Every structure is written in C-alpha cells, then in structure tokens.
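Retro notes, structure queue

What went well: the backlog is down to a handful. What didn't: a couple of records were mislabeled last round, so from now on we paste the full input next to the output in the thread. Example, using NACHT domain-containing protein from Dreissena polymorpha:
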Amino acid sequence: MNYEHIFYTHDKLNRRIYLQGDPGSGKSTFAAKLVHYWSHRNQPSSESRSENSMFNDALIIRNFKFIFFISLRDARGQTCVVQMIQKQLIDTMYSGDKRAIAYLLLHQIIETERCLVVRDGLDEWVVPDGSNLAEPFMAEFSNDRCTVLTTSRSWKLADERIKNSQIDILLEIEGIADPDSFTERILRCILDKRNYIETTASEIKSFILESKLTSLSFSPMLYTLVICTWVDKMGEGERLTGSSLCALYTTFLESLCKKVNATPGFFNDLNPIEVKCFSSTRYLQPIIQNVQVISKAAFHLLFSTEKETSIVFNDHQLSNYVSKSEEEFALKAGLISKRKTKKMSNASNSFIHKSMQEFLAAFHIARNAHLIDEIISGYLTRHMDAYLDISNVFKFLCGLNISAANKLSNMMYEQIARMVDTKHLVAFRSFQGIIYAGYREAVANENTGILFKLSHFCVNNNNLIDMYNIWTDNVSNAHVLALDIDDVTDTNMHSSPAHRKQTSHVEFNLASCLKLKSLNLKGSGLRLTDSASSVPSTLPVWIVLHIANSTQCVEPPPILPSIEQIVLDKVTCSSSWLRSLFNTLLNLDHKVECNLLNCEITSCIEDAVTWSPTTEIATLTCFKNTLNVLYFDNLSTGISTGMCVVFHGLNIKSLHLRGNYRDLNVNHTELLSRSLSSFTHLTELSFELLDYSPDMWKVLNGLNIKYLNLSGLFGGLNLKHLESLLQSISSLGHLEWLRIHIEHFSIGLVKVLHGLNIKSLYLIGMFGGLNIPHVEPFSQSLASLLHLETLSIEVYDDSPGLWDALHGLNIKSMSLNGSFGRFNVKNIESLSQSLASLTQLETLSIYIDEDSPVLWKGLHNLNIKSLSLSGRFGCFNVSHIELLSQSLLSLKQLETFSIYVKTYTEIQLPQSLKYLNVYCWALLPYEVRKLVGTLSARYRTVETNLEFGCASSDASTFERIPLNEYISIQQELETQKHLLVKRFRILDRLCKTDMFDYDVASACSVRGVGEVDDDTQDADSVQEAASERFVSGMSNETINRISIRLQITPALNARIINTCGSKT
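Corresponding output:
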C-alpha cells in the first residue's frame, strides 16, 4: 500500500477518501504523518523508509499545493469546513488586519488551487442542536480542485446519511504491519543503545504471544503502551503480566499518575478497592480520590445531555466536577490536556485519548452501578446508535464490574431491538461484536457470572468457543443462528478462555430454541445429528435437532416453533437428520423456507437402500404438512436417490415437486414411488415435469390422493405414454380434483379424462390457448364425468369448440380465468348458449384485469346464486358500468356478489342480493358513506363485507387519507337503528425493515375500534384466493386498510338515508 493507491483508482484522482479504524488504531497518526511528509517536501527524505516499503511515494501528496488539517473534535458546533480552517488555523496565527487578509487569501486558494483537506475524527465531531448533518459540508470548495480525506471510527461511517455514492474509496487501517519492527523502533526511542534492544524486543514478543495479546497489533497506541509499560516494569525489576485491556489501561493510568505522586501504597483489607485490576497496583492507592473524582468527570462529560461537551470541554464545564487542585493533578499527570485559546475563559480541555476517558467513565460506573438506570438509559434513548458510541465503555465495564456490565448489555440490547427489525442483520452483527469483545475482556479479568443478552449469533472458527458460551445463556432468546465452521485442527478453537480446558466438540442443541427464526449452517466442520444418531465424529461442532430423552416425554415440546428460514450450505448430513428436520417443519402452522446449497446427503444404516452421497441444490417450503420442492440442480440429475430416501415416511398431506423454470426431471421412479406410497396421509400431489419415461406415471399407481396437478415445461405438459398415464390415473380411486396444464389440446386428453370420478376439473392451455378441434369426443368425455361439480378454465382467446363442449353439463360451480389478465371473448352466441344450458350452475367466478362488454352480455338472465368478479392481481377496472349493471339486474336468483375493484364504482344491484362483498384498493370516506346509503335504500336485508385501502387513487396520483376521517364513520354507523356493525377493524401494515420499506404482503397489526369485532363468516361469502390477491396487489404506499362487516336492514325513510351521507 502506498499513497498512490489511496489517492488514485485506475489513474483517476479520488476526491472523497474515507479512512476508518478502531480506537487507537493510528488514524490520527496516519493523518498527521501525511501532513508531516508534505510539509517536509524540500528536505531529504532519507527517513528510515528503507525499512518499510509502504508509503514511500511522498511525491504523490506533494502534488497538492495546500493541505488543511482539521481536528473535528475541536470543531464542536461548527458545520462548515471553511469556518473550521479559519478558527483552528488562521485565528491561531493572525489577528487584526492580517487575519482579514488571510481570510480573503483562504477563499482565493480554495477556489483556484489544488487542495487536500484532512478532516480528522469524524466520530468525535458534534453537530449543533437541530442539525441533521452527518459530516461537515464543503460548499465553498471547488469539486474539481479539492480532495477530502476523512478519518473516523468505523461505526460512524455506517451512518445511512453517508451514501456510498459519496465515497470514492473507503480504506480501513488495520494497525501495525510488522509488529517486530515497530517494537524495535519504539525501543530505540526510549532505551539507551547500551541496553540490549534486540533482547528486550524478543522478550516483549514472547510476552505478547504467551498472553494472547497479538490482537493488540490493530492498535498502535495500545501496542506502544505495552512496550513502554514493559520497559518501565523492567526498570523496576518486575515483569508485565496479563491479557486484559483493563489491566493495560490500569498500568497506563498508574504510570501517568506516578509522575505526580511516586509514593507507594497498596489496596488491602483495610483499604479495599471495588475493581480487581486496581488491587495489585503500587501507586494508585495514595491518589485514588483524585482518580475517582476525575473518573466522575470523565463519566458525566461523556454522557452529557449536551453532546458537544462530551469530548472537548472548557474550564467552566470541567469545574462542575473537579476542584482546582484536582484539575492541576490531572493536567500534571497528563490525563487531561489543555489547549489555550485567545480567551482564557474558553480554554479547550480533553482527555489524553478518548479511550482513556471511556476507561475512567467505566471505572466510575463500576463504583456506581445505579447510574446505568439514572443516566445511561436516558442517553441510549436520546441518541440513535448510542449503543455503538458507548461500546468501549461497555468493554471496560465487563472487566471492572460484571454485574453492572450484565445490566448494561440488557439495556443496550433493548435499544437495538426497539430501533430495528430483528431481521436487520447488519445492526445485530455490530452488536454481537460489542458483546463478544466485552465477553473476552470479562474472561481476561477472570470474572464469572457473565450473563450478556444477545439474540443474533454469527459464529465462525475464530470466535467459536466464546460465542458458544454466550449462546448457552441465550438459547431461549436466540432469533438468528449462523454458523460457518471449517473442519480444521486448531487448539485455540477448542479451548475455552473461561475455563482454559480442551473440548472435543461443542453442541448447539436446537430443542430449546423457541424464538429462533433463521438458521444458517455452513461448512465442513459441522456435524448434523439427531436423537437417533450414534456414529462418533471428530468434527468440532455438532448440531443436535432433538432432545435425547424426548421419547420419555408424554408430550414432547415443539422443536423450532418459530423458525422461518433455514440454509444448509456445503454441509454434510444424514438422510435421517434431514428427514427429522422436515418432519419438524411440516408440523408447524406457518411457512418455513429451507435452502439446500451444495448440501451432501449420506445414507444411514436404517435406510432401505444404500447409495453414494448425493449433492443437492434445492429450495423446500414447508407449511402445515405441505411440502413444496423447487430444484435448481442440472436437468440430468433431477430428483436424486438421497432426496427420495429423505422423503420416505414424512407426514405429508400435500407435495409439490418442480424444477427451476417450471421443469423437473424424474429419474429414480422406483424410489420415488416407494416414498410416495409411504405418505399415508398424502391427499394432494403436484408435478411440474420437463420430460419423463414410460415408468414415470407408475409413481401414481394406487395412491390415495384426492388432488392431482400435472404441468410441464413453461406450464404446458406434453401428454405422452398415454397407456401408462391412463392406467395410473384410473388407479386413483379417491381422486376428486384434477388440474392439467397442457401444451396443446390432443385426443389423448380426452382419453385421460373419460369416465373419471372427479368432482373438480381445472384445464389450462399453454400461453392461454385452449383450442378444441375435436369437439364431439371432448364433449362426450366431459359428459362422462358424472360426479363433476366444479369446472375451471383458463384461456386467453376462446373458441367455439370450447363453449360447445361445455353445453349441458351438470356442474354447480364454474370459474373463467383470463390468461395474462385478458379474457378475449369472440364467440358471444356460443358462450351465452353454453352458460344458459348449465341449469345446475349456482356459482360463477370470473378473473380478469379488464372487463369486456361481450363478457357482461354473456351473463344475462343466468340463474346463478353467487357471482365473483376479480382481477388476476387482485382488482380490475370496470369500464362498462352500465352494461355490467344491466347484467347484474337480470340475475334474479343472485344472492351473493363479490367484486374486487381498484377504485369505487357505483353499480346497480339486484334486489335478490343477500350478501355483498366489496374489496377496493382505494376508497374515500364519502364513498363509504355513499355505498352504505345506497344499500340502506334497498327493500331487503343485506349482509355487507367491505374492505378497502385508506387512500385516494387514480391513474396518475396516489394520496393517503388520515385514519381519523374513517374512524368517525363507525360512530355515525352505530347511531343508525337499521345498521348492525359486526366488525370495524383497522389493519396497519408493519414496517418490514428499519428502512421503512413497506411491503403489502408483510404482516399487519390488527386493531378493533370500539371493541366491535365479530368474526363470524357467512356461508361462503368470501373467496380466499381472490382476497389474498387483493392484499398482495395493493399499492406499497397504502399503509392502512379497513375491514367493515355490516348488517343493513331497509331504512324506514329518506331522513335516515340522508343521515348516512347518501346523495341518492
């Protein structure tokens, strides 16, 4: 890495550069060194860069004519970079007329010269109250002449207000590239050459390795602290020990305080101390009161309600917490530094480093745990992402007072849980990093009773044991578990830092995971086992599905009752484990998606057959004993032997098998047939086939299914091997429902259908076409279906043969679906005659996106009792209102009418109507009143179900309507004696993510108004499938919808009608 990599990408100059890193990682040092190299451009650059080839191209930065270095921690309350330059640079060098001239020169420079602005410490910058800026603005700088380098802690750059599009390059400082060379360079600065630098460096290196402090190389500040403390201890004839950050900062604190008072003193039974890491110090006891007072100041300033004073504060603010002598002690010790300004009263103070302030603040909390409730809780509430801001304080507190740390972890968890949806993994992954670091610090300080709250677990080889220990106390609270474990031999991976002992493996038992929603298992280091598994394994992580003694329970507890998504990625599992998993999922009452990504399935001793391991790529969806399998594997493989064996014996009532692009290759027909026969409760079976052999249909032989769906490539099934198909379907003695999506009509279809005992038949033509060239045979075949009650047809263009074939059938229910939302009726006479000949027809459903005058004419004078009109995606536009009204008025027997429309449409209704269901994507309050008024003018009682979105909408505009305008309607309705309000329910769509991306298909919160909520359902008055399409098709901008159920009796006079707001 060198400067060219930072400032150029593919020879293009980067204008907006961001450098992120953890506390003490060297961000400010890097920025200062850059300025140093630039300012010494006229001096020989013989600096010992020969030892380090990194950043040896200082000529790159010398291309900038001017560099402005801004300390953002000193720019509190300022928003403009030009203003910061004036105050921090010009005002410190000039006064009077010279200052005014310098101001003018500054503006000339930033407009005409090539400049680099270094903004150091964005995370320490405090904006003025009321400002929503994420970073200072550069309004006066020329975009084509100015480059900006910004340093910050990582969490600050996660702010969503800092867009990726604003960042040309994002860099992360990783700490010390060569710790050994770094150690020797530091030692050369602090040791006399007569001492043995190489020997000391070797001893320090051994100490760091033995104490497992190598991770400190990410922080040059802490690494330097270790080196300097080692040298100090060495001069006193002692050795540095331990791996705790608290211990290191205690040593750092002691070394600073010793400069003011070198009188030794000890904490003992007579002089106890609340924190363990202070107990072995030599110089803190005599001055502990000073430390306590300064710690109190560190805490109250850090958690100040005025955030701009949390890091940089003036003398007056400091005096609220420390006396003059205590301030003098802090200044002499170097704990606090003071920077003079033009006005003495406005002297700028800050701690030596923010991390030292955080350590002292944690020490104060450790001594006063009540502050967590009294002050920190309010701080977390006031500031978004505050849990990130206080992460270092939490880590130190874990080493100082574990009881207080436990309490704070719970409070931080509650904040993040309130702030974001539990599916927002990025935020919870950041929180896990905080908890993980705190746990490590607690263990390093030999604390016990660690009870941190965590719900999202991302576990890998590096954090396995620590995260497992945290997991054991949070099993019942876990929402997400993601494991990525390789099968590697690493003693550190198996060693628990809490107990310092070796473990052969760890077990994640899923039996108690009552809230777990997402499970992601990846890697060769996982062993997936259930209560039936007994094969030994050397793998580091075992995933146990069932409780070992669950057979002894009268009623075993549910397994994974809240699970919604499972991913098995590059893992190996036995057929018995996967079968146990599916049996568990099939018993749940909600949908669960399981993705197999290169998942290897192995055979078990108890399997009826043995086979070589098979690799699967598939998505399986489970819901109430329904299994939907989508294959993504190559077409030559299809359903594998392993999956056939896994399916064997599952408690499945409904099975859907299909491949990617709606095709599925079935090769292992014998094994699949054996598995299907083992489904004793199977009632519904669906195949979407690409191609099949003559033996394919044998898998259907003798099944007790009631429902069968057959389709093929892109939906159309090419009917072949008819003899085998005829035999198999004829053997289905319980078959009642048959759906066939055919490629084209053939005489084979006639033969397949002839004489079946089915009650329902669904015919779909490929791409909407269902041309019937053989009318007579097809008509005879349909007539032979003596038990047929329901017929559904999906076409785009009709044909005379289609309607002729339906003539005279004894069906009771019929559904006409327009493919792609269109139902192009060309043969109105044939359609009208066929519909009129269906004398037993009671229910008619039509699915279209655009209405047709020809279609409405075809409905004239039918004797149906129920009619439903809806769109393919929920609702449709009624363009021919008068023709539809005429057709409805002609339906003298119509009792139930359901209509799904995009906007309110006033249609005339027959007087025979008893049940009315109106679904509307957007309905205005006055339109609700008008509809109620119209129905009140009728001559008979009508039960009305009304569901609508609270909005106004047309082809070009959309507007949400306030809820209170609708709520007042309920009060009006309840005053009417002829109205009975059975239900008035508001459904509020829940926010899907913290980005407020509302998704109409997401869950809705339901609230009744005025305790009116009668859920009784009248006889088949609402069609479930159409209702689901209504909800899913609703605009994403619709936040609220209302469901009303009314019983409307005839109004006694016009006064009542007008009271309801009708204009009729």
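Agreed that this is the format going forward. Reviewer comment attached to the example: The chain has a mean pLDDT of 82.
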